[in-house]
Amino acid sequence: MDVRHLDIAKFLPHRSPFLMVDQLLTLDDTHVSTTFTIKPDCIFNENGVFNEAGLVENAAQTCSSIVGKSFFNENDVEGEGTKLIGFISAIKKVTIKSCPKVGSTILTNATLKSRFDTDEYSICTLSCRITLEHIELLSCELNLVIQELK
């Protein structure tokens, strides 16, 4: 399946104005790649710049799609089969080198490092890198908790 045609907003629990991912480029069991174009009305803009909290939130939303995908049926291209909640349980390491300007389109790549599943939730550790025109803006390692809402 070509994931570029999936509407990522149907699979993440976030909604405008808190959705920080526009397009899913690639997605498999261990890696994801997304883009996000920073619009002028984004809640994480400060003086024409997408701030550090916005970068971290973009990273977390991108990362959550790797584990989140396992909660959905492969044929559920509308994201109707389940509802998820996820949150950052720990930021193990983060390096922010620069913040992009409004109007920029950032590329975010994440890789699953470890995962622990229970009947109730999944805990995972992921590494993430955000770039703008091949220049690294952020690198981090996050722990996320993903849970299906019953």
From TrEMBL:
InterPro entries: ApeP-like_dehydratase, HotDog_dom_sf. Pfam families: ApeP-like (PF22817). It comes from the Bacteria. This is 3-hydroxymyristoyl/3-hydroxydecanoyl-(Acyl carrier protein) dehydratase. It comes from Bizionia echini.
